[in-house]
Specification:
Shape of chain A: globular
Strand order of the largest sheet of chain A: 2-10-9-4-5-6
Shape of chain B: globular
Oligomer: heterodimer
Helix content of chain B: under 10%
Mean pLDDT of chain B: 97
Distance between the termini of chain A: 36 Å
Strand content of chain B: over 45%
Radius of gyration of chain B: 14 Å
Structural class of chain A: mainly beta
Order of helices and strands of chain B: EEEEEEEEEEE
Number of strands of chain B: 11
Structural class of chain B: mainly beta
């Protein structure tokens, strides 16, 4: 099975900051990498697929990059509604494993 | 609009079984797969498996392989997930979700509201 590891596990930042979250796969997954956002008590929201393709309706301040084993999610200018937990997920092979999550908190 | 509506919360004793339903609407049910994901209290997302609604093929996480069954009823656009021999650490919110293919990859774009399953004696 492919293991997904996110770093950091938690992150404090301020509104307006540029933030980067990393996701590493235990083996190459090409660009089969998705990102989700989850707020407390809410259902996850789909953000990005194929490492860098933004889902319709997702603000352009979100971007993704990477291929192979190393990926990043970048939020260019944090907004108050962006404070949440972010998960990466690989869809290269089943089981389609998730990372453990990165909690983005207000500084 | 795409909607996935799940059945209500359940409380079960250890060793019992639970069956969660997920009724889909707003899209052609047979065009996409259904994935099940669970989240234990305070923890992250765990992929449980998925079912092809088109042909009924399933793929389960190895750790659940012996205890989980995913099925669909295309006549009612409803998916089901049954988990048997429940343990305390099966306590979690269970989500159904639409699994879409793109090229050789897949993503989850719509989620049900979640069903809390509590295992308690």
């Amino acid at each position: 099975d492919i293991q997904m590891t996110q770093s950091p596990s938690s992150l404090s930042a301020s509104v307006g900051d540029r933030v980067t979250i990393s996701c590493r796969a235990s083996q190459s997954i090409s660009r089969y990498l998705n990102w989700y956002q989850q707020k407390p008590g809410k259902v996850p929201k789909f953000l990005i697929y194929a490492a860098s393709s933004l889902q319709s309706g997702v603000p352009s301040r979100f971007s993704g990059s990477g291929s192979g084993t190393d990926f990043t999610l970048t939020i260019s200018s944090l907004q108050p509604e962006d404070f949440a937990t972010y998960y990466c997920q690989q869809s290269y092979s089943t089981p389609y494993s998730f990372g453990q999550g990165t909690k983005l908190e207000i500084k | 609009q795409v909607q996935l509506v799940q059945s209500g919360a359940e409380v079960k004793k250890p060793g019992a079984s639970v069956k969660v339903s997920c009724k889909a609407s707003g899209y052609t049910f047979t065009s996409d797969g259904i994935s099940w994901v669970r989240q234990a209290p305070g923890l992250g997302l765990e992929w449980m498996g998925w079912i092809s609604v088109y042909n009924g093929n399933t793929n389960y996480a190895q750790k659940l392989q012996d205890r989980v069954t995913m099925t669909t009823d295309t006549s009612t656009s409803t998916a089901y997930m049954e988990l048997r021999s429940l343990r305390y650490d099966d306590t979690a919110v269970y989500y159904c979700a639409r699994l879409r293919d793109y090229g050789s990859g897949s993503y989850i774009d719509y989620w049900g509201q979640g069903t809390l399953v509590t295992v308690s004696s």
